[in-house]
């Protein structure tokens, strides 16, 4: 057993310089845009910012955060009120399919949190929900750095009330 452990350690030390050479710094990009949230209770809008790190041509990770900018007027029991998207945040693993130098398709899978606030006749209630998120999209670059991004993502909420929200995003993307 001791010989196996020593041989494994020796192979690891020999292979370490080769592994270090194959690992490169991630390629970063950022985007900002508008996201439409379509749910059973209403349609809301948000400004969304994203940071993406691509580790190679085919895989990366992404973080996003949104702040609500479009509310929905609602009526509950004959009383008027509003539904507001306060914020959301999520992290994703991203699989990328490069089509050309300027066009790439992607799929993403992640986990997020969303906060919604309802105000009806002076009574306010906030609800936070955790969700498993999955979606697809595309980036098209006009030049090597600047482009547009379009995506659609479904949020499957994990709490007792459950529910789903579909999001549609369009924005500006820049490679760094």
Structure, explained:
The protein is mostly beta strands and 176 residues long. The protein has one helix and nine strands; from the N terminus they run H-E-E-E-E-E-E-E-E-E. Strands 1-2-3-5-6-7-8-9 form an eight-stranded antiparallel barrel. It is elongated and about 55 Å long.
Distance between the termini: 49 Å
Task: Tell me the major beta sheet.
Answer: 8 strands, antiparallel, barrel
Strand order of the largest sheet: 1-2-3-5-6-7-8-9
Kindly state the mean pLDDT as a whole number? 87
SS summary, helix count: 1
- Rg to the nearest angstrom? 21 Å
Helix content: 10-25%
Low-pLDDT segments:
1-21
> Tally of extended strands?
9
- The ordered H/E elements are HEEEEEEEEE
Q: What fraction strand? A: over 45%
Backbone structural class: mainly beta
Q: Which outline best applies? A: elongated
Provide a quick synopsis of the model.
By secondary structure, this protein is mainly beta.
Distinctive features:
mainly beta; elongated; 70% strand; disordered N terminus; 176 residues
Please describe the topology of this protein.
Elements: H1 2-22, E1 27-39, E2 43-54, E3 59-70, E4 72-76, E5 79-98, E6 103-120, E7 123-141, E8 146-157, E9 164-175
Antiparallel strand pairs: 1-2, 1-9, 2-3, 3-5, 4-5, 5-6, 6-7, 7-8, 8-9
């Amino acid at each position: 057993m001791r010989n196996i452990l020593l041989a494994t350690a020796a192979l690891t030390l020999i292979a370490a310089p080769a592994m270090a050479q194959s690992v490169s710094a991630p390629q970063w990009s950022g985007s900002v845009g508008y996201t439409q949230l379509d749910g059973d209770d209403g349609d809301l809008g948000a400004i969304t910012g994203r940071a993406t790190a691509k580790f190679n041509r085919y895989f990366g990770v992404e973080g996003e955060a949104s702040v609500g900018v479009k509310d929905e007027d609602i009526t509950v029991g004959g009383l008027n009120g509003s539904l507001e998207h306060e914020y959301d945040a999520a992290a994703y693993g991203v699989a990328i399919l490069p089509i050309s130098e300027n066009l790439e398709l992607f799929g993403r899978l992640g986990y997020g949190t969303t906060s919604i606030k309802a105000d009806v006749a002076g009574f306010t209630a906030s609800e936070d929900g955790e969700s498993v998120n999955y979606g697809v999209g595309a980036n098209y670059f006009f030049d090597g750095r600047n482009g547009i991004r379009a995506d659609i993502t479904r949020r499957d909420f994990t709490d007792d009330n459950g529910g789903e929200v579909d999001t549609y995003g369009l924005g500006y993307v820049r490679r760094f």
